[in-house]
Amino acid sequence: MKRIALILAAPLALLALHCWNKQRTRTRASDPRLFDPLIALRGSGRHLWADEHADEYIHRLREGWE
To answer: Is residue 66 part of a domain?
Structure first.
């Protein structure tokens, strides 16, 4: 029983956090990007990898590794 409680604890905590953030964004403004710094970061830096596939980028980063 204790193991099941531990397995369920993390998803329930994340669900509670998600619900809290959803409620906060709903009550504070119609556009959450105006006050939520994490949502405001969505898409930032997109130009950095626009010309290169993610797998190619990782391969290039790891070229010098031994």
So the answer is: no
**Is the full-model pTM beyond 0.70?**
no
Report yes or no on 18 lying in a domain: yes
Total domain count, the chain: 1
pLDDT in tens, the chain (66 residues): 556 655 666 677 778 888 887 777 665 556 656 667 787 788 888 887 788 888 998 898 899 887
CA distance readout (Å), 38 to 8, 15, 24, 59: 26, 17, 14, 28
Q: What range does the domain containing 49 cover? A: 2-61
